[in-house]
Amino acid sequence: MNQIYYSLQVDAISAGYDIRINDIPVYADPNGNPVSVEFPINHFLITGLNILQVSISPAKHETEFVNHSLTEFKIYSREISDLTVNRKLIASAKFPDYINNEKLKKAVIPSKTEFTASLLLDTPVWSTAPVLKLNEETINEALGIYKEFFNALKSKNLDAILKLTQIKNKVFADCFYTSLNNNVNRVRDSIKGEFDDSFNHLTDFDIQKKIPELHAFGKLVSIKNDEGRSPLYFYNSETGISTEYEIYLCRKDKKLTIVL
Prior knowledge:
Elements (H helix, E strand, L loop, with lengths): L3 E10 L1 E7 L2 E6 L5 E6 L7 E11 L11 E10 L8 E6 L15 E9 L7 H4 L7 H19 L3 H7 L21 H11 L3 E3 L8 E5 L4 E5 L8 E4 L5 E3 L4 E4 L2 E4 L2
Helix pairs in contact: 2-3
C-alpha cells in the first residue's frame, strides 16, 4: 500500500481567513488577497480523527464582507504516486450565507470540520507529547532554543541545525533533511536554498520581546512577533522577498525540542 498524500486547497478573495489543522496554524491572510493554492498537509496529521479549523472575516481594508467575497477550503487525498486529477475530496469548511445575512456581514465566522486520515508513518511526536504550560521555565527554555537555532541559521551551520532537530520522525524534524517526498520536504529544500543564495540574510530580532503561543491543543509552543508571525525569516537583498519559517517545539524526554 502506498503512502496517502493529503492536501489543502484554498480559494479565497476579498475575505480574511485563518486556517488550522489540529490547532496548528497552516495559512492565514487577513488582507483578502486573491489566492488559489494547494498545500501538502501530511506533516500536520495523525492517523485517525483530525480537525480542520477555519475562521473567516471581512478583509482588513473592508468593514464587512463584499458581494464578491469568496472562501472555499477543501481537503483532498490521493496515493502519492497518483495524479492530482484523481484526488478525492474528504472534507471542506462550510459557512453560512454571510453575504446576505446582515448579522454576519461584519462578523468573524468560525468553522470546525472533522475528517479521518491514514498514514504509513510513525505517530507524530507532538501528538503524544505532554501538554505545556506557559510558565517562566517553559518560556525561558523556548527562548533559549530559538536563540540557538537562530544563530545556527544565521551562521549557516548545518551541523548545529541538525543537532537541534534530532527527533527521529519521518514527517516532523527529519523532513528538514531526510527525503520522504518532494512535497513534505519543501521546508528542508527551501532552507538549503537559503544557504546557497549569497543575497539572503537572516533578519535580526530581539527575542526577549517575542510572545510564546501554544498550539496543537497545548502540546506545541511557538514564538510570534508583534504581527503574529514567526520572527525567523530570511530577507533577499536582490529580490526584496522575505521567507518566513514557522518553528515549533514540544516536550520530548523532559526537554523542549524543535519538531516542525
